[in-house]
Amino acid sequence: MSKEGIVKLKTYKIAVLGGDGTGPEVVAEGLKVLKAASEVTGFKYETTDYDWGGDRYLRTGNVLPDDAADQMRQYDAIYLGAIGHPDVKPGILEKGILLKLRFDLDQYINLRPVKLYPGVETPLKDKGPNDIDYVVVRENTEGLYTGAGGVLKKGTPDEVAIQESINTRKGVERCIRYAFEYCRKRNKRKKLTLCGKTNVLTWAFDLWERAFYEVAKEYPDITPDYAHVDATTMWMVKNPEWFDVIVTDNMFGDIITDLGAMTQGGMGIAAGGNINPAGVSMFEPIGGSAPKYTGLNVINPLAAIGALGMLLETLGEQKAADLIDKAIAKATGEKMKSMSAGKMGYSTTEVGDLIADLVKQG
Ligand code: IPM
Ligand code: MN
Hints:
19% strand; binds 3-isopropylmalic acid; Isopropylmalate Dehydrogenase; alpha/beta
């Protein structure tokens, strides 16, 4: 309370990184929905645009300014479109922007809900929204993604390439702990599945397994469960209803969430968040920059809009997040024909308008 007795509302500062390809288009629709949600629920925000991405790199030769992470630390959240440019060699932008920000901002959780909304087609036979509704907690700063390793005798017949998986007790435990907390808060089936490969990766996943069952003792209300990653992909197709929350390492999490995305209707609807629970988090549609659809007003913005919902939930704006979730469900269930680019029965901007209107209707 201020001296005058008036509650001063916090103004959220949001950095907007539209990025490459269709990124800026889908983010623009998300921002429409942000405006609508703020009008309905009353929170305040301001956005700042950044041009980080492939075009800037081709123009300047720089992927990111040196103080990029420091700049981002001044915000309450980051809203990202997509990174990846057809004229830039694969890896440069992905590593130089996306992974760099995840690492520098210590966003050690990659939270990826696998949720089939009503009316959305899934390739899984006889499965519906009640069956496909779980969340993958992917470790986001370690594993095979740290760049540890190296190459010897490159280009010769004796070439040696080593890419090591880094797993620290601290890094693994904080991820597992987050997953248990998340599972408790989600309050659904109250089951947490560790997805690993203890039968082969006996060093790394022994650490994961021990940490998992030790932390599990602090959460007697949660059923701890284990599945090898290969079996996990099988159950994700055959019995997705068995899952509630899955926790796994960076590489396995990357792979299984693309599978998960396909079961929930494709990249057009799959959202995710790179989360630092004590810092600044970054939300993004998990699909790529889709260069062939750029500028055509056909790409599905729902993944970006879902990511915005996750952003608001993380900021504590639960009511706004719930309204957005409800609006997406109504749009998929009653309005849109398909989740695929060009087949939605609506253009990109029309989907944004539709969701904004539904949010305003409550
Ligand atoms: C993802 C992407 C990234 C990853 C790439 C673009 C570096 O596939 O967000 O899942 O591997 O994490
Ligand atoms: Mn991926």
